[in-house]
Write a structure and sequence with these properties.
Elements (H helix, E strand, L loop, with lengths): L13 E4 L14 E2 L6 E5 L20 E5 L8 H12 L3 E6 L1 H4 L3 H9 L4 E5 L4 H4 L14 H12 L2 H11 L3 E5 L5 H8 L3 E5 L3 H13 L12 E2 L8 E2 L1 H4 L6 H9 L5 E4 L10 H5 L9 H9 L6 E5 L8 H14 L2 E6 L16 H4 L4 E5 L4 H6 L3 E6 L3 H10 L3 E3 L6 H11 L3 E3 L18 H12 L2 H21 L4 H17 L2
Parallel strand pairs: 4-5, 4-7, 5-6, 7-8, 12-13, 12-15, 13-14, 15-16, 16-17
Antiparallel strand pairs: 1-8, 2-3, 3-11, 9-10
Helix pairs in contact: 13-18, 16-19, 18-19
Keywords: Glycosyltransferase, Transferase
EC number: 2.4.1.-
GO molecular function: UDP-glucosyltransferase activity
Length: 509
């Protein structure tokens, strides 16, 4: 069977090794799944001004130490944990900086690695909730429920600079890995004369679109918010509208990111990172504890036929209105398909609304499972009973869906998710859109909801008939290619070793 042909920009977790200073230590790592096998491209650019011998501390040891911060908050932390574990598996000493609450979600995984002989550890720092005006325990962006809380959360990230810098000076690492919203990490890296790796949860494909919109401004040539325009400079024809293009959202971070992404002199393939977790236990602990119990969820799936279940999950950030949740329930029920639906748990600050239709739970008993809170997404997607994935098109969810070989119903909400939808539905041709037309605010008030009839039609298109089967076959081919890339001796495995060697050579040439 011939492999699917797809453009080179493809999917990505984006990991950048870089600095804000033009003449400082500079790397750029862009992680993207490429045409030949859905590999993950990593592009590296080295500044001529970086001097690895400037600090004698680094020339006195033969080992490589990397400190990674898992508390950016803007994206799920577990891809960063996956990367840290791969560094350790390839001979580096990896230290993960986290807060006590966040660390509790992955400490068991790290302890198992330590028992297996890996040099990996967790260093704890306190998150300044009170000083930033946040309630205790609000240590991730998904815990915020209003714009005001989100702004306070980013203020709390700024307050981490001093304790993190103190920890780095004490440990003297060879490299620092930090999230995009730790903008001060560049200054810290410059002071210590070490390279800073920047993890970015956005993919290479949406970054190409961001760059094209910024450079060419095609949205200026249309007359309405819903009139389509073509995004210039891409291998495929991609059409967007102003409502989907995020054109007014200009941030210092994104502008800086676009300026820094350059064509690298070297490239490595190092993912998809979700495939680094091999055992069911590792996959179960790749996130929070799920409220329904992993055994209950998997036992339920074990009783179902192959490709018969739709998995519905919108990530940890989405807040749907009661009206929209009601429409989702109607659409799932009327589709007649079996499903697992992950619903965000209400916090004590949110309204508790009984939004389910009367008698819904009794009518779907046996063919529907509702999980409130967190679910073991990778385990669910990889189960043979799962034949479709309704997703918000967050980048990690897209990657996990591709790696599992599961076709998707796309329902983007905000950020780059509308760009990712185009990739899944029009370029990869392994998904179908539900019909979302514009950004939704991260509040209960989303405006006019997507109707249950539209949800039902999208689910039926994916799960029933020849078109859905073609998408399923294509998704399976991409999943097989992703798995081959990360196997021992595969391109990702070999290139990750090459990447680690490159980092070592900076300090021990």
């Amino acid at each position: 069977m011939q492999a699917p042909r797809t453009p080179m920009y493809m999917l990505a977790n984006v990991l950048l090794l870089e600095s804000n200073q033009a003449n400082a230590n500079m790397f750029i790592l862009v992680v993207a799944l490429a045409r030949a096998g859905y590999k993950t491209w990593v592009e590296l650019w080295k500044s001529r001004k970086f001097d690895p011998k400037a600090n004698d501390e680094y020339s006195k040891t033969s080992s490589t130490s990397c400190i990674l911060s898992a508390n950016d908050g803007a994206w799920p932390y577990y891809p960063m944990i996956d990367i840290a574990r791969q560094f350790a598996r390839n001979g580096a000493k990896a230290t993960i900086i986290s807060t006590p609450l966040n660390a509790s979600h992955f400490s068991q995984t790290i302890e198992r690695d330590r028992q297996d002989g890996l040099e990996i550890s967790i260093s704890l720092i306190e998150f300044s909730c009170q000083e930033a005006g946040l309630p205790e325990g609000c240590e991730s962006l998904s815990s915020t429920t209003t714009l005001e809380m989100s702004l306070k959360f980013y203020r709390a990230l700024d307050l981490l600079q001093q304790p993190v810098e103190k920890l780095l000076r004490e440990n003297r690492p060879d490299a620092i890995v930090a999230g995009l919203f730790f903008w001060w990490a560049d200054d810290v890296a410059l002071k210590l004369n070490v390279p800073r790796l920047q993890f970015n949860g956005t993919g290479f494909f949406p970054m190409c679109i961001y760059n094209s919109l910024r450079e060419h401004k095609p949205y200026e040539n249309v007359e309405s918010e819903y009139e389509e325009f073509v995004v210039p400079g891409l291998p495929d024809e991609v059409k967007l509208t102003r409502k989907k293009s995020q054109r007014r959202r200009k941030t210092k971070i994104r502008a800086h990111l676009l300026r820094q992404v350059v064509i690298g002199r070297k490239a490595w393939h190092v993912g998809p990172v979700s495939l680094f977790s091999k055992s069911n236990e590792e996959k179960t602990h790749r996130g929070l504890e799920n409220s329904s119990g992993d055994d209950n969820c998997l036992s339920w799936l074990n009783s179902k036929k192959s490709n018969s279940v739709v998995y519905v999950c919108f990530g940890s950030m989405a807040i749907f209105s009661a009206a929209q949740l009601l429409e989702i329930a109607k659409g799932l029920e009327s589709s007649g398909q079996e499903f697992i639906w992950v619903v965000r748990e209400k916090t004590k600050d949110e309204r508790s609304i009984d939004w389910l239709p009367d008698g819904f739970e009794s009518r779907i008993q046996g063919r529907g499972l509702i999980i409130k809170g967190w679910a073991p997404q990778v385990l669910i997607l990889e189960h043979e009973a799962v034949g479709g994935f309704i997703t918000h098109c967050g980048w990690n969810s897209v990657l996990e869906g591709v790696a599992a070989g599961v076709p998707m119903v796309t329902w983007p909400l905000s950020a780059e998710q509308f760009f990712n939808e185009k990739l899944v539905t029009e370029i990869l041709k392994m998904g179908t859109p539900v019909g979302a037309q514009e950004w939704t605010k991260r509040t209960d008030d989303h405006g006019e909801p997507i109707k249950g009839d539209d949800i039902q039609k999208a689910v039926m298109k994916l799960m029933v008939g020849e078109e859905g089967e073609r998408m399923r076959i294509r998704a399976g081919e991409f999943g097989d290619m992703a798995k081959r890339a990360v196997e021992k001796g595969g391109s990702s495995d070999a290139d990750l070793k090459s990447l680690m060697e490159e980092i070592r050579n900076y300090h021990h040439p």
